[in-house]
Amino acid sequence: MTLLQSFALMGIGIVLLLAGAEALVRGSAALALRFGITPLVVGLTVVAFGTSSPELVVSVKAALQGDGGFAIGNVVGSNIANLALIIGVSAALRPMVIQKKLVQWDLPVMLGASLVLVLLLLDGYLGRIEGGLLVVGIIAYLIISIRSSRQEVRAQKELELPAEVEEVLAEPNKRIGRYLLLTVGGLALLVVGADQLLEGAISAAERLGVSEAVIGLTLVALGTSLPELATTIVAAMRDHAEIALGNAIGSNVFNTLGVLGPAALVAPMDRAGVGDDALIIMLAVSVFTFGILWRGFQTHRWEGALLLSIYALYLWWIIQ
Q1: Going from the N-terminus, what domains does the chain have, and what CATH number goes with each?
Q2: CB of 298 within 8 A of CB of 98?
Q3: What stretch of H or E contains 126?
Q4: Closest CA to 53 of 261, 264, 268, 255
Q5: C-alpha pair distances (Å), 126 with each of 145, 149, 203, 239, 277
Q6: Is the pLDDT of residue 79 over 70?
Q7: Dihedrals φ, ψ of 231, to 5°?
Q8: Per residue in 5-20, pLDDT tens?
Q9: Is pTM beyond 0.70 here?
Q10: pLDDT confidence band for 235 (50 / 70 / 90)
């Protein structure tokens, strides 16, 4: 397989992953609503997990194939992209006012999850016990978030829901079979897309003479972060700062706890190819972003430009 064919296969895999995630989110959200789960809970759980499903499926399949470095690299690279690239682009496009809750709750959780992941990977291995700890963390995060959001709903009488939930609520009632088909079809596309992406990435790594972890930290991480990038840019342009920032930060929490946790439970893995430098960069970018968002509870365009510069330097450092 030529290098061009490898990249083409990766592109096909990413397209299938994105299409599968979209179908899965819409189908599963509609099913959950039809079975009586409140829109708020659906938005905080089903949609959140659905948008992280590309990273989850890719990481689980990579772990099962013994490519732990690829699985961990995908998450570490996605976390760096979510902060340096996605928040950077959003801040550069339009300054954003930051909600106090985001700084007081979600940002510390994100920073704590990143620190825990780095500590767990110090020995170069992520086992089932560590995976179980991460899964407990995402469950606790969801429970606390749901309770907090319900209190906010009672206080404000309303809370903006994810677009996917709003669209499903606006649809006329359709037969449940359609939603089942969307859900099953979405899962199938995710599995096939992960296969294509992994095959193309492994081939590209061999052709370029780099480790699979490097491909996971860069191309694959960026590809699986495309949904978050698109959602965040649109939200920022529409002056929905809480959605733009919450989407990027929440995605990091889900990637760290809700992707690597289940992946390690399914198949313990080592971080072959994901060096200390990548982990330090992820933690440093998390701390730096925390400092930017904490200072003054608003972003500025120069801060967005600085984050984008950091992402460009990160890519140069990993690839060179």
Answers
A1: 3-319 (1.20.1420.30)
A2: yes
A3: strand 125-126
A4: 255
A5: 26, 32, 25, 40, 18
A6: yes
A7: -60, -45
A8: 888 888 898 888 878 8
A9: yes
A10: low
